[in-house]
Specification:
This is N-acetyltransferase domain-containing protein. It comes from Thelephora terrestris. GO terms for molecular function: acyltransferase activity, transferring groups other than amino-acyl groups. It is a single chain. The protein has 416 residues and is of the alpha+beta class. It has two domains: 213 residues; 140 residues, 3-Layer(aba) Sandwich (Aminopeptidase), CATH 3.40.630. The protein contains nine helices and 16 strands. Strands 1, 2, 3, 4, 5, 6, 7, 15 and 16 form a nine-stranded mixed sheet that branches. A hairpin with a 4-residue loop joins strand 11 and strand 12. The N and C termini lie far apart (44 Å). 40% of the residues are buried.
């Protein structure tokens, strides 16, 4: 299988790549987010590879006139793959067969995906070493692989986990891809819970001025250095602990809540000491909502709803070629979050949110780019797959509900 590279050093080419990915939303949200969400100085470092050849330099018909993948202006084979890579950090993968979420992978599809990754591995191996300038590492985990530089690919559809098992050295376990389609204009973009509606919003982690009262209990700001220290300490045992530098790089998208009742106000000296945060979240580099946490001492007060609503309101809007036909914030009006199925509290939290639903299950995989793919035994292992286990878990806990699979499925309230 040949593999084709597309450079993003030309803004027009970037727009064409995004226009190609748009009709396949929500399955391509992570790929789009990895292109439009990083700092502008890092966009040129993003690499795009596909199993088909398309001249993204040519102007194309805007997707605003496209109703679905079958009408994409690009000529693509029935089965194709595309991956967006951020050097030394992580990537996002999409295969056209992802659109058939409930269908198991066919032998032809599995062979195609394996052949694609055989080409991707040497490309990742050629990325610059870690001591050169590049994107901020996201995960604070022990080095993996021969040279300690395992590469992460996020949101890999669960159907590909068995055929990619031979190259996988770490995996996240089953993850529910929660998605929220663009809500109709008649619905509010985000709703604050009544018991958390009294909130003071301040900037960049700065404490409120000394005249602030405690009547507005919840103080919303962005990460301060001390907040990041506390977050890292609290989530040090997390399945995916975040690197300090990564949290700092996403501080402009962070939501942190402090309890105004715990403010240490020194009237005599005119100083205010901010307490440790009680809830927080960030908007990830792929545009998803993540690291959502509420301290046990403050659960049951609506803070999770408050933080989620504020994240939705603050998420950067990317409209692409669709212009003002898109409502809401986020990528083309969509919001999404990856939630480990093991984390039952988080799964239930998102399942009850208005408009949110599970789109499909996936896993994050890590492979070693320094292993020669021609030396790998690509035959399948005869052990039960995480796919069947994740489906059984979801069935037993009644988390998965029947939902239309197509990306243009109507917006639904939770429970419908």
């Amino acid at each position: 299988m040949p593999i084709y590279f597309t450079s993003l050093d030309d803004p027009a080419r970037v727009d064409n790549v995004l226009a190609f990915l748009e009709p396949y939303v929500p399955h391509t949200l992570g790929l789009i987010g990895n292109i439009v969400n990083p700092h502008p100085s890092l966009v040129k470092a993003v690499k795009v590879y596909a199993s088909f050849e398309i001249d993204f330099r040519k102007p194309i018909r805007p997707p605003s006139t496209i109703s679905g993948p079958s009408e994409t202006p690009f000529s693509t084979p029935p089965l194709f793959s595309i991956i967006v890579l951020r050097p030394r950090e992580q990537g996002r993968f999409f295969c056209s067969a992802d659109l058939k979420s409930s269908d198991p992978a066919t032998p032809e599809e599995e062979t195609h995906v394996q052949a694609f990754f055989k080409k991707v591995i040497p490309i990742v191996a050629a990325f610059p070493p870690d001591n050169e300038d590049g994107p901020t590492p996201e995960y604070d985990i022990s080095p993996v692989g021969v040279r300690g530089r395992g590469y992460h690919v996020g949101r890999v559809h669960e159907k590909w986990i068995p055929c990619l098992d031979p190259i996988t050295i770490l995996r996240s376990g089953p993850v529910a891809c929660f998605i929220r389609p663009p809500p109709p204009p008649s619905l509010p973009q985000a709703v604050f819970p009544s018991n958390a509606a009294s909130a003071t919003v301040i900037g960049e982690g700065a404490p409120p001025d000394q005249g602030s009262s405690k009547s507005d209990r919840w103080i919303i700001s962005r990460f301060s250095p001390s907040d990041i220290d506390f977050v890292r300490l609290t989530q040090s045992s997390s399945l995916i602990p975040r690197h300090r530098a990564y949290l700092e790089s996403r501080s402009h998208t962070s939501i942190v809540v402090h309890d105004g009742h715990l403010l240490d106000i020194d009237v005599n000296h005119g100083t205010t000491k901010m307490p440790n945060p009680v809830a927080w979240s960030i908007i990830q580099t792929d545009g998803s909502l993540g690291v959502l946490w509420v301290e046990p001492s403050h659960r049951g007060l609506g803070l999770g709803d408050l933080v989620l609503a504020e994240c939705v309101n603050r998420s950067e809007t990317y409209h692409g070629f669709s212009g003002d036909r898109v409502t809401g914030t986020g990528i083309l009006g969509w919001q999404w979050a990856d939630v480990s199925l093991v984390n039952t509290h988080s799964v239930r939290f998102f399942a009850k949110q208005q408009g949110w639903r599970i789109g499909w299950n996936s896993q994050w995989i890590t492979f070693d780019p320094d292993v020669d793919p021609t030396t790998i035994d690509w035959s399948f292992r005869e052990t039960p797959t995480e796919v069947s286990r994740s489906r059984e878990w979801a069935k037993n806990t009644r988390i998965l509900r029947h939902q239309p699979e197509h990306s243009n499925a109507p917006y639904q309230k939770s429970g419908q």
